[in-house]
Amino acid sequence: MMNKIIIAIDGFSSTGKSTIAKLLAKKYNYIYVDTGAMYRAVTLFAKQNNFVAKDFLNKESLISNLKDISLSFKFNIDLGFAEMLLNGVNVEKEIRTLEVSQLVSKVSTISEVRKKLVAEQQLMGENRGIVMDGRDIGTVVFPDAELKLFMTASADKRATRRYKELIDRGDKVSFKDILFNVEERDRIDSTREDSPLMKAEDAIGFDNSDMGIKEQFERICALVDRRIL
Fold it and tell me: Parallel, antiparallel, or unpaired for β 130-134 and 31-34?
């Protein structure tokens, strides 16, 4: 019988963490949790309630209203992955906009927000057999995960991927804005006081600037197999 493990995937924005995580969850019949979607949903809540804007953050009001935020995932059989629900409402499309992307790092620096979401994420992984991606999974959420990966790629390559994704979806965006957002999120994520983005000592680094999904997936599956067999 194969062991069930925790697979923690961390790294910079737009490095394909979620794509790889979904493929792994499907192959090994694991639960997939997109922690970035959770932070985006809290950001959407803050935006809807005028707690955050491009040049504004009402930290105290957001903290006092965290109790009113309920997050859950609902599996969409047609899409093949779970979508994000905020207080019972599917917000998968709304949380993927550039506007939310520009605000999420600001909201995720708040310690009280991180504490609430980390506790929920740790509960999800109690029975193992889970693939989770984010910024602090291997360092904070699951420091004892059996497999930790840290994904990187050049800012230009990541911005190109994100730009194509949004254009294909029909969004009107400029590459310049996307590149700025990627670089700004890197800066905020890496320098925040609470759980900054960093590679765990025992994490395996993956620079996929010039690596396709197929090659990445095959290499990572080999690492998973060594740990579960």
Answer: parallel
* Total structural domains within the chain: 1
User: What sections of the chain are H helices per DSSP?
Assistant: 17-28, 35-48, 59-64, 98-108, 111-124, 155-168, 175-191, 213-228
* Domain hosting residue 60, numbered range: 6-228
What CATH number is given to the structural domain containing 219? 3.40.50.300
Residue 218 has pLDDT above 90, yes or no: yes
The H or E element containing residue 150 is: strand 147-152
pTM: 0.85
Phi and psi based region of residue 109 (left: phi greater than 0; alpha: psi -120 to 50; beta: remaining): alpha
Is there a domain that residue 96 lies in?
A: yes
In a domain, 1, yes or no: no
Are the C-beta atoms of residues 84 and 91 closer than 8 Å to each other?
yes
Question: Do residues 63 and 110 touch, judged by C-beta distance below 8 A?
Answer: yes
